[in-house]
Amino acid sequence: MASDSFLLKQRHDQQRRYPWQLSVSTLEEDYAPAWNLKIPFSELQFRGRLIVFEGIDGSGKSTSLQSAHDYLENSGIAVEKLDLLSPFCRQLPYFRSYADDTSAAFDGTVDQPALGLVCLADRLQRFRSHYFRLLRDGVWLICDRYAITPIAEAAALGANADDLATMVKVASRLPRPAIGFHTTAPENVVLDRIRARPKDKGKILDPRFYRRAIQSFARTSVDNDFITIDSTLGQDTANSQIFSAIDAVITQYKREILIEKEV
């Protein structure tokens, strides 16, 4: 069986260069973007609250998200867990190609910034057509990935500044989360977790991409004031950070409800 590195090199050797096409040599470089990726989210007000979890695959995101959901439910909050990205979008051929092998972003098979824009637009459409109403009616939403994922991955893969600026502009149409969490773990931990998942059997994993993506997620999350959760410190430590941030929002939420009743 051909190794991941051989397959990546084969893609690189066969690629044709276009002005917008990414270069595989980017993965050999340190991640040090010269631009800020802060997203000027829309300032919409809802009775409900939006809580977002971002992080690379294998970072412990799903476990922390579930803890947050259960904590809110046990606190008597009407809450729904969701993934804004539609099943239809996930089945697009170029989405599947990139999800199974990120090196598809280097040979012209997939234009990752363009795919990122598709995913951002899909999330925006789903939010406006359905989830806006839930937040308006007072339901709290716990979202698995939001706007940072496509942008952080594009930055990690070496997308140009114009493409990143376009992605940030589209992302800004989404509402600002009440809380944003970013889960992280070292490269070796992330890769071991992914390899251990049956659903990811056969997925091509390039350690260089994950090394850069971890750094990119961290940088983009800091730019957007997300709370970083190190999943290697244990779930109790993670829960302590998560529940503390949620409690502050619950306190404000209950205060607003009391004011509404008085009016």
Automatic annotation (TrEMBL):
Pfam families: Thymidylate_kin
Entry keyword set: ATP-binding, Nucleotide-binding
InterPro entries: P-loop_NTPase, Thymidylate_kin-like_dom
Tagged with keyword ATP-binding: yes
SUPFAM superfamilies on file: P-loop containing nucleoside triphosphate hydrolases
Thymidylate kinase-like domain segment(s): 53-241
Domain of life: Bacteria
Classification via PANTHER family: THYMIDYLATE KINASE (PTHR10344), UMP-CMP KINASE 2, MITOCHONDRIAL (PTHR10344:SF4)
Protein family membership: Belongs to the thymidylate kinase family.
Protein name: Thymidylate kinase-like domain-containing protein
